Amino acid sequence: MRVLVLGAGAVGGYFGGRLVEAGAAEEVAFVVRPDRKTQLDRDGLVIESPSAGAWCGSVRVLLAEELRPGWDVVVLTCKAYDLDDAIEALRPAVDARTAVLPLLNGLAHLEALGAAFGEERVLGGLAKIQATLGPDGVVRHLAPFTALEFGELDGRMSERVLALRAAFARTPVGVEAAPDIRRRMWEKLVFLGALAAATVLMRANLGEVAGAPGGSAWLERLAQRNVAIAAAHGQPVRPEWMEQELLPFFRGALPGSTGAAASMLRDLEVGRRIEADHVLGFMLEAARRAGLPDELHEAAYLHAKAYEARRDAGRLPGG
């Protein structure tokens, strides 16, 4: 299997790097920008992880203009706001044999990718990881849990899905080929939408929010509201997932959950672009379409959009 990963940041660098480390694919290559290519060619890909161990190795790195057909799987790990540019960059690499696996936040990208490459080429997928790319180019894995879930959007257990599962099964990544990947993607958005809304709005991690007066009850109310939104759109979450993963995480009962914060908060705190529309805006509109109370989502979205306006005007602290 030949795997092309768009991006070598926190998500692409971690999952693609683990494939290289395990020798789990015939070939793995990363599509990056020139500055990142220079860094990777010089230092190799470096991963630091408290649970799966550190790894450093040389990797094949390509610029967009070097792309040619012949890849079995293209893994997209760009930010949602970069999707249009990513699609144009990848067109030369996608042919009739290629499956496109997006690991983006939100759901709107599925339609855009289907229109660009054909619906039959697009898989559903999600990544569960807390990681960041440091200014030194090191991929730092911040919490012990790491998992990938992917599948055909029509629920088939295809040969390409099984082959990709077999490749990742050789790595320290938890992997699942899911026949209900659309629902799993909604579950991820339920989780991420609550984590981003809470930590961005309050500018604090979950433990700090929970420790404030009324914080624990507020977090649970936010998570339950997202569960209701998903159900109203025909994607009820699995009861066992809610009871064993979602609610325990927001109650601080899972390893690493008290110190958890959305990557959106980390981006905001250093003045980067954020996925306000793709996560917070999406959930706000979903709440409104469902006729559900929207005050929690409206406050989080307004906060994020006000940050974007201030950033665009060059009025961030230290700017």
Automatic annotation (TrEMBL):
Residues 3-154 form the Ketopantoate reductase N-terminal domain. It catalyses: (R)-pantoate + NADP(+) = 2-dehydropantoate + NADPH + H(+). Residues 180-307 form the Ketopantoate reductase C-terminal domain. Pathway: Cofactor biosynthesis; (R)-pantothenate biosynthesis; (R)-pantoate from 3-methyl-2-oxobutanoate: step 2/2. Transmembrane segments: none annotated. Belongs to the ketopantoate reductase family. Catalyzes the NADPH-dependent reduction of ketopantoate into pantoic acid. This is 2-dehydropantoate 2-reductase.
